[in-house]
């Protein structure tokens, strides 16, 4: 009985780290990313709600950026363009374009991942905003005047899941580690550009965008892992039907 239990535990452990199993390595990594991202988000949310010292950094950084926001009209215009491109209409347009590109490549499951990640992530973010009801940074002469809530940043969350899905797809099909590194770096730069534009324009605090990145990573882990598991199950059923 003891040997049987040990054998079962060994098989279970091996299966969780097998790239070929239906519930193998992809699911293990997905759950790990989900748990880490959720823990990080919960820590930031707790510090925001309790007024921890990081909220003082929020205020100081927001005030400093606002004081220097008019130093460069080119930088302000560039970041304003970035933030507009990743607004709800812009992000949905980018998602539609990315979905069309994936359809042309026959990546049906990745299209499903994209559709569940971006619009679904937007809805999740709205729900979280109305849960935390944090006011946006306030200035006497704001660059942007917004009446919605601040925590977490919707633009940053949307960019995280959008470029995260595309990066996952491209990394899977890249042929060298250099190409994979370049893809991940490009995705991170785009997310940081969007987050930076929200900070620079005075729409969010630092903790808003950090929490949004973690929120996006958690939701991305759910969507990518869930669709990958569905694809593997369908493939396994197809193989069983071929054998029968």
TrEMBL record:
Keywords: Membrane, Transmembrane, Transmembrane helix. The chain crosses the membrane at residues 23-45, 78-103, 110-128, 148-171, 183-203, 209-230. Residues 110-224 form the Phosphatidic acid phosphatase type 2/haloperoxidase domain. InterPro entries: PAP2/HPO, PAP2/HPO_sf. It holds the Pfam family PAP2. This is Phosphatase PAP2 family protein. The lineage of its organism: Bacteria, Pseudomonadati, Pseudomonadota, Betaproteobacteria, Burkholderiales.
